[in-house]
Amino acid sequence: MVEHVLALAATWTRWDGEPAHVDGRVYTPHKAVRRVADHLVDHLAEMEARLAGRPTQPDHWHASATTTDADRAPFTPDDLDEARSRLTRLARIWADRLDALTPEQLDDSPGEGWSFRELARHLGESVYYADAVVT
To answer: What mean pLDDT comes out for the span 65-91?
Structure first.
């Protein structure tokens, strides 16, 4: 998922500044990166809490319902470098965490919610945010 998002992000330095309107929401390059990163962080926090036997902390993201002024900024080569660093590190943390779990833990995960295997598959759907950005 992260490779796909970053491949698209490499084209966003040519973004014309016109937000994409998809499914009643507004999408921009910065918003796509923000949403992918937030999604990875949110579900990582969920998994860690469940593994520790703690209740999950509800998120208070505005998610894709909100488009900030920062989301509307031009997407520069420096922004692409930052996105590459941020998203590849988050993907590595996820891969390391999942690799440390047994098949049983992946499929019969503690607490309420999807199994961790299902959670990881769900994260793959984050490509939606990047696919929504038209360059």
So the answer is: 97
The residues that bridge with 26 in the sheet, in sequence order, are 21
pLDDT digits (tens, 9 = 90+) for 10-39: 999 999 999 999 999 999 999 999 999 999
The pLDDT tens digits for 60-73 are 878 888 999 999 99
Cα separation, 13 vs 17, in Å, equals 10
Token pair 């910065």 is found at 30
b/e 22-54 (16+ beta carbons within 10 angstroms → b): eeebbbbbbbbbbbbbbbbebbbebbeebbeee
Q: What's the rounded Cα separation, in Å, for the pair 73 and 75?
A: 6
Quote the tokens at residue 55.
Answer: 């209740």
Tell me whether strands 20-22 and 25-27 are parallel, antiparallel or unpaired: antiparallel
φ/ψ region of 81 (left if φ > 0, alpha if ψ in -120 to 50, else beta) reads alpha
**H or E element at residue 25:** strand 25-27
